[in-house]
Specification:
Chain lengths: 367, 275
């Protein structure tokens, strides 16, 4: 008997691999009308993993000290073998994370997959979205460039507008009255320890919920597109006669990941400076304010919206309410219908919201 | 929403959600701070005609880009509207022609030295040109060989000798401009160009000292020497550009491989679907 067969049998006896594969992969059935949009989650998992790997590699050479941070990043980009590649992947990966989270959330919204019994799936997903934005923001400061320094200064300034506790919060966040070395230390700890661990926990919660409740049925290609869950007691949504996850949908996931990889690699090699404005290559100088400080593309809509309110605090409150509304949407939208064309008011509002977001983003970019 | 549904959400999740949502929106940057106050620009910028024109001309100039404002040449206090034009605050108004090289030379020390040593500088006050004769006063652009032209030089003398000087310097000027563009392209990609920028800055400064010299032979020899130095910098730039080009080739292969993998996986999935 071959050594490999012997090893397999030994493991099979102890782990029951065949049963595990049969039950969890081949026996894990998905709805027959499942579509491409259901692979967004897999793409996101892939991106999270890539961000983790590139982040760890960057940690080897990055020095979280205000005196050395900029030069350490410069060394990564110029002296360390493939350092430029790893950092560019990390930077473009950060934007990809936000972009694909938005796509994932939009597909869930339009297919009504957030409805009962998947309120917690949506909530945990929304938490992941906010955490990803937070990790992106904290990572922005770490290169200690003019862009990092001033974008963080302006971003944290908003905290100071909160009545009564604003000044205290501002100092707590910055570790002083102004952005400085203590801020770098705090943001570094958040970026490499607190937020990644929290994200990992929420990813596990999200995956547990997906597996425990079962995959939702897309509302397309069916006569009855209503949500069948009766809100009474727990029931796993199975799909008798559906397609097996392995190998069918796993191949779809891998196809989507390969397509994503092609686009991602294109950006890394052909437009590496897409997310690097000129100020990203100038060391932080607290005495010299750049002429135009703008946030990353995913904050532009909020940045522009803040300008429209007469008072910054009111603008912040309105946006906080809007975010809270989206977070608790599954608890507010109790309709049974899932097909977007059969719930025109919701679809019109959602498209309106997307158009407003895009318009504010473009306006913010050119303002 | 029914009361029972509300009960399903743990209070801690509510609290955490609200905290995160607030933290997130609070992190959004606000509009940038206003520009530094300058009463000279505020008042003259709103005037029309002779008194407003200098501000319009200055806007977009190299001096504006570098933050050199009215008081640097005209004196006065740009932060105090009442005493902005007070002689007690150093206001001199329009400088005397003989004083102009001294005023410009406060910043352009080397250039002033070269100018004063040249035939142009020696003729100052005797019909010779001052700095503003060739460079202008408010709408000052970055100094370039374009300033040496028949129309400008012929105001005082024939263009023949000036043309010879220009010809000797054109190649170097073109080389410098091309290299500046290359550095700009490379820097945008994140490559550290600081050592090359410093080397180019030094070579350009040496070259610019020739701009005020009228000795054709000397200019020809010095230009040739500077060209050799520039050639070394350009070789380094070309090596970086070559590396960037190779990266793009590797990128094209990687993109192609990923697309090919996507196609194979797609076809494999279709095969399983048929089975």
């Amino acid at each position: 008997m071959k050594i490999s067969k012997k090893t397999y049998d030994w493991l099979e006896t102890r782990l029951g691999i065949e049963e595990l594969i049969g039950k969890s992969l081949k026996g894990y059935l998905l709805p027959r009308n499942i579509n491409f949009w259901y692979s967004m989650g897999s793409i996101l998992l892939f991106i999270f993993a890539l961000q983790g790997i590139t982040g760890i590699l960057l940690l080897i050479y990055y020095v979280p000290d205000a005196e050395k941070a900029f030069n350490s990043v410069k060394a990564i980009m110029n002296e360390i073998p493939f350092g430029w590649f790893i950092r560019t992947c990390h930077v473009i990966g950060a934007s990809s994370m936000v972009f694909f989270l938005l796509l994932h959330m939009l597909s869930v919204l339009f297919m009504g997959s957030y409805k009962s019994p998947r309120e917690l799936n949506w909530l945990s997903g929304f938490m992941l979205f906010t955490l990803v934005l937070a990790i992106s923001l904290t990572g922005y400061l770490l290169p200690w460039s003019q862009l990092s320094f001033w974008a963080t200064t302006v971003a944290t300034n908003s905290v100071g507008t909160i009545p009564l506790i604003g000044d205290f919060l501002l100092e707590f966040l910055r570790g002083g009255k102004l952005v400085g070395p203590p801020t770098l230390g705090r943001f570094f700890a958040l970026h490499v320890a607190v937020l990644p661990v929290t994200i990992a926990v929420f990813v596990m919660i999200h995956l547990f919920l997906v597996k425990r409740i079962g995959i939702s049925t897309p509302p397309f290609g069916l006569d009855d597109t209503k949500n069948r869950w009766d809100d009474g007691k727990f029931r796993y949504e199975d799909h008798p006669g559906g397609i097996p996850f392995f190998p069918h949908y796993l191949l779809q996931d891998l196809t989507s990941i390969a397509l994503y990889l092609a686009i991602f690699v294109f950006f890394v090699f052909f437009t590496p400076s897409l997310f690097f404005p000129a100020d990203a290559f100038i060391p932080a100088d607290s005495l010299r304010t750049p002429a135009h400080i703008k946030p990353e593309w995913y904050f532009l809509a909020n940045y522009q919206a803040l300008k429209l309110f007469p008072n910054e605090f009111i603008g912040i409150i309105v946006q906080a309410l809007a975010m809270t509304f989206i977070a608790f949407l599954p608890f507010l939208d109790r309709g049974k219908e899932k097909h977007p064309l059969k719930r025109p008011v919701f679809t019109a509002c959602a498209i309106g919201g997307i158009l407003i977001f895009l318009a504010l983003t473009i306006w913010g970019h050119y303002s | 929403m029914t009361k029972r549904n509300q009960m399903k959400i743990p209070t801690s999740i509510f609290a955490l959600m609200s905290f995160l949502a607030c933290t997130l929106v609070l992190a959004f940057p606000a509009p940038a701070a206003s520009q530094t106050q300058n009463v000279c620009i505020q008042c003259h910028g709103s005037l029309e005609g002779r008194l407003g024109k200098p501000v319009q001309q200055w806007q977009g100039s190299i001096h504006e880009q570098d933050g050199v404002t009215c008081n640097e040449c005209h004196g006065g206090d740009p932060k105090d509207a009442v005493n902005a034009m007070s002689p007690a605050r150093g206001f001199i108004g329009v400088p005397e022609e003989k004083d102009i090289p001294g005023i410009c030379g406060r910043c352009h020390i080397g250039v002033n030295r070269d100018y004063l040593a040249s035939a142009h500088g020696k003729a100052l006050g005797k019909g010779g040109p001052s700095c503003v004769t060739c460079h202008g006063n408010h709408a000052i652009n970055r100094a370039s060989l374009a300033l040496i032209n028949e129309r400008s030089c012929s105001r005082c003398h024939s263009y023949e000798r000036a043309g010879e000087l220009k010809d000797a310097m054109v190649k170097t000027e073109t080389l410098i401009t091309t290299m500046e563009d290359k550095i700009d392209t490379i820097r945008k990609g994140g490559t550290d160009t600081e050592p090359l920028e410093k080397a180019l800055f030094s070579a350009r400064n040496q070259f610019h000292t020739l701009f005020h010299d009228v000795d054709v032979k000397k200019v020809q020899n010095e230009s040739a020497r500077i060209n050799r130095d520039l050639g070394k910098i350009d070789a380094s730039l070309e090596a970086i550009l070559k590396k960037l080009h190779e990266r793009r080739i590797a990128g094209a292969i990687a993109v192609g491989s990923a697309l090919l993998a996507a196609l194979i996986l797609y076809l494999l999935r279709k095969t399983y679907e048929k089975n």
